């Protein structure tokens, strides 16, 4: 799985390449900076990264709080379908979530992401839908 892409080693600019977009998403997530990560989403995007579907300011706040805890994400691009200005991406992911007591929760699963191409030709997240298939403490 793609892991630990460090800020500065990958341009965090949005891209028109679906596979590269997954690498941008990983790099932004692993900065643990909610503002950077949230910049990949359309303003009206929905994310259930927190376990429930969120949008707008609540999505931004919850993702920012989660990322401040220092989670690490690794993911393998599995495929994509493009229909006009809509992109469906499939990835297999591993997410390591630190807990307040100093332990970790590991989640392994599949994520289906829907992105929309903007006027600039770059993809932005519309729906972020990770589904955990396995969770371990």
Structural features, described:
Pfam families: DUF4440. This is DUF4440 domain-containing protein. The chain has 137 residues and is α+β, with helices and mostly antiparallel strands. The chain has a single domain, classed as Roll (Nuclear Transport Factor 2, Chain: A), CATH 3.10.450. The chain is 22% helix and 45% strand. It has three helices and six strands, in the order ααββαββββ. It has a six-stranded mixed sheet with strand order 2-1-6-5-4-3, with helices on one face. Strand 4 and strand 5 form a beta hairpin. It is globular, with a radius of gyration of 14 Å. The protein starts with 17 loop residues before the first helix and ends with a strand.
List the helices and strands and how they pair.
Blueprint: H1 18-29, H2 34-38, E1 41-47, E2 54-55, H3 56-68, E3 72-83, E4 86-98, E5 104-117, E6 123-136
Parallel strand pairs: 1-6
Antiparallel strand pairs: 1-2, 3-4, 4-5, 5-6
Rg of Cα set: 14 Å
Instruction: State the total count of DSSP E strands.
Output: 6
CATH class: Alpha Beta
Number of domains: 1
Helix content: 10-25%
Outline: globular
Spatial strand sequence of the major β-sheet: 2-1-6-5-4-3
> How would a textbook summarize the main sheet?
6 strands, mixed
Q: Uncertain spans, ≥5 residues at pLDDT below 50?
A: 1-10
Give the N-terminus to C-terminus distance in angstroms. Answer: 20 Å
- Mean pLDDT level: 87
SS-based class: alpha+beta
Question: If you consult CATH, what is the topology?
Answer: Nuclear Transport Factor 2, Chain: A
Strand proportion:
over 45%
Q: So how many helices?
A: 3
- Helices and strands, in order, run as HHEEHEEEE
> What is the name of the CATH architecture?
Roll
């Amino acid at each position: 799985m793609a892991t630990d892409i460090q800020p500065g080693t990958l341009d965090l600019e949005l891209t028109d390449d679906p596979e590269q977009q997954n690498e941008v998403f990983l790099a932004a997530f692993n900065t643990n900076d909610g503002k950077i990560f949230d910049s990949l989403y359309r303003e009206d995007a929905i994310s259930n990264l927190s376990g429930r579907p969120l949008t707008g300011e609540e999505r931004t706040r919850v993702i920012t709080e989660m990322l401040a805890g220092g989670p690490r994400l690794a993911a393998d691009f599995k495929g994509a379908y493009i229909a006009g200005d809509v992109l469906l991406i499939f990835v297999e992911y591993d997410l390591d979530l630190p807990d307040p007591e100093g332990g970790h929760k590991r989640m392994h699963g599949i994520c289906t992401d829907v992105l929309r191409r903007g006027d600039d030709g770059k993809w932005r997240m519309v729906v972020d839908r990770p589904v955990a298939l396995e969770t371990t403490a």
